[in-house]
Specification:
single chain; alpha/beta; 10-stranded mixed sheet; 8 helices; 10 strands
């Protein structure tokens, strides 16, 4: 495996058809679109999948990157992160976006010439945007515009978004921005309306009548590679948590790189 390879889970068909644990791997280097959109209704295993993706992204970039975590819902799955420096709960989630957006523009202007990976993980993004829209629509529109900019410019500037939500409705994903995610994962019981928001009809037909349980579902890579995924239980949950905590608390040097 390359340092930029990210294990998403195991091949669903190999797991159930042959008892084979074949990793599903994708490249998250600057050569590819590594923005991730993870969807799943309540009880689908989505929050658990976020934890695992978080840890695996940290392992993939090692000490060469920096991670921010926005947790609008303050899910108990992320309780262990609440004392971390770069953990942003509830209304402060927008502060995480502003920080990452600022890094993007410093790189775009040439003020910041570094290209270490910067990742913003934003849990319950859809609920966050809808909450702001109900109070101040202009502010919500501005937030979505910044998200869209990161999606469009992030690859070449090594800035990545990992967005988690239940349903990726157009109200929070304007101007076709759902198509700007290179890695799309839908976990849990199949809901055709979610598929229709993210996947072309030919791939939906290929999914057919498949039934998925908790932590299982569909993966679409770069808009053209359809697969089916099984996210197994982590044997050492405490180790996973330590990886995530370290990623959000490591001191950052003058170049913006997290120190070991």
């Amino acid at each position: 495996m390359m340092n930029s390879d990210l294990i998403l889970g195991f091949d669903y068909d190999k797991w159930y058809g042959y008892g084979e644990k074949k990793p599903m791997i994708t490249d998250i280097s600057e050569k590819t679109n590594s923005h991730i959109l993870l969807c799943g209704m309540s009880g689908s295993g989505k929050s658990y999948a976020v934890n695992i993706l978080f840890a695996r992204i940290c392992n993939a970039v090692k000490q060469k990157g920096i991670v921010y975590f926005a947790d609008f819902k303050q899910d108990d799955q992320f309780l262990y992160l609440r004392e971390c420096d770069r953990y942003y709960p509830y209304n402060s989630s927008i502060d995480a976006l502003e920080t990452v957006y600022g890094i993007l523009h410093k790189r775009q202007s040439g003020e910041d010439k570094t290209r270490h990976p910067v990742t913003l993980i934003w849990d319950e993004y859809m609920a966050n945007i809808l909450s702001i829209q109900g109070i101040e629509k202009k502010k919500a529109d501005n937030i979505m515009r910044k998200v869209s900019e990161i999606l469009m410019l992030g690859r070449s500037l090594s800035v990545r978004l990992v967005i988690s939500c239940q349903r990726p409705d157009a109200a929070a994903f304007p101007s076709g921005s759902r198509l700007n995610y290179g890695i799309i994962i839908v976990v849990g019981a199949p809901i055709r309306s979610i598929y229709e928001m993210l996947i072309t009809k030919e791939y939906i037909d290929e999914i057919g009548e498949r039934e998925f349980g908790v932590g299982e579902g569909v993966v679409l890579l770069q808009g053209s590679q359809l697969g089916f995924i099984k996210i197994p239980k982590i044997r050492d949950a405490e180790k996973m948590k330590r990886v995530c905590i370290n990623a959000l608390t490591n001191e950052v040097n003058v170049a913006g790189v997290a120190k070991p």
